[in-house]
Amino acid sequence: MKDLTRGSIVSHILSMAPPIVVGMITIMLCQLVDLYFVSGLGDAAVAGVAAAGNAGFLVNALMQMLGVGTVALVSHAVGRKDRDDANLVFNQAVVLSVLSGLLTLLGGFALARPYMRAIANDEATINAGTTYFLWFMPALALQFVTQVMAAALRATGIVRPSMLVQVLAVIINIALAPVLIKGWGTGYALGVAGAGLASTIAVCIGVLMLFAYFRRLERYVAFHPAQWRPQLRQWKRILNVGLPAGGEFVMIFIFMAAIYYVLRDLGPAAQAGFGIGTRVVGLIQMPALAVSLAAGPIVGQNFGAGNRERVRETFVKAALISTVVMVALTILVQLKPGMLLAGFSNDPETMSVALLFLKMISLNMVAQGLIFTCSSMFQGLGNTKPVLWSSATRVLTYSLPAIFLSTRPGFRIEYVWYLSNAATTLQAVQSLWLLRREFRKRLAPRKQADGPKQAAPEPVVPSVREPA
């Protein structure tokens, strides 16, 4: 366990963020590698895999319910020096993760094709997305347990073990992708099914490695089978924090689904270009997201310990670091967008859509970084409802106008990106306002106990004897 209530906040952020960003980048690289090899199967395959991958946002919403709730409650317990409560929350979250994984697996198998039919018109795209989804579902189900274990470690200030496991799992996935998708070395190509299967095998191995770490090396939080009996009170504590955070990812899913819906009449190339561009933007934004994820446990531990000023200081430092990072990345995207997209598709139309998307969406990266930071602050404070409200505002201010404009004559794809930037900027402004209000409520100085106020003592001025 690492005590985040002491020492330099900037030092804590900068020591925790790199392992987090490495783990996230490797996961994103894994998705990009899948798209890279799938791109050789045609635009319909790329569009199908990208659209099916968007459903991962919906599953991530369920994961966030557990992960965010676990980070908040465990970090608060660590700040209070209450190890028993930290372990109870962790073990109850593990039980919830197993149940959630099973429900996700069953729901995914039942709804894969109806989902693809709802967002795509092309039959080849529907078939490709459905096939990928069915083989990828076990990976999503297993990630629930991984999310809870990684969240508990992050709440205690430990991030390296999770990162190492993620990196090893992604390396396995990358190694398996060309073998299973293209048939390298075997001569038996599975196509989009191979992309999903490679991810499932890699995630399964990652879960086993992280479980072994907890059994052999982790000391502060640990598996206690005696605490696996369902306790509804603990579930309620976790979900009270986690449900709104999960709702935020549902809003992201709706936001992305609305874009796919608006683009579907523009053809597979438009959806494929958007899918590629989205993943590249996600990869670029990972450093700022890692800074915010590192700040969350710092806020949680200090809030649990009653260190109000360190909570405020954490926000200021995290926001400044995130802004600097996003400004630098925006400049990179504007100067070298083609370099970031190289090799993802041979179709000029698809790459044209991806290039336009990347250059336009990168203009709101600073705003997105502030959204990340505010979200982590709310999670650390244990109140994620404001995050849900700001995300819902973004969906409403984007989806309805976008769908309306797509029905008008002369509709162009640029309108989609203009609306997206405007909605994101509005969400950033709203998030900052909501966080300021939350700080006033949760971090206000405690009132003095009732009773007569005593005047402050007069300062003592030392006398100076005049020389004789």
Explain how this protein is built:
With 468 residues, the protein is an all-alpha fold. Helix content is 79%, strand content 0%. It is built from 15 helices and no strands. It has helices at residues 9-38, 43-80, 83-119, 123-155, 160-181, 192-216, 232-263, 268-284, 286-305, 308-335, 337-341, 348-361, 365-381, 385-406, 413-442. Helix 2 runs antiparallel to helix 3 (83-119). The longest helix has 38 residues, at 43-80. The radius of gyration is 24 Å and the shape is globular. Mean pLDDT is 83; it is low at 448-468.
Distance between the termini: 64 Å
**Gyration radius over CA:** 24 Å
Average pLDDT, all residues: 83
Instruction: List the total number of helices.
Output: 15
| Amount of helix | over 70%
**Residue fraction in strands:** under 5%
Element order, helices and strands? HHHHHHHHHHHHHHH
Global outline:
globular
**What summary fits the major beta sheet?**
none
Number of strands: 0
Which runs of at least 5 residues are low in confidence (pLDDT < 50)? 448-468
Structural class, by secondary structure, is: mainly alpha
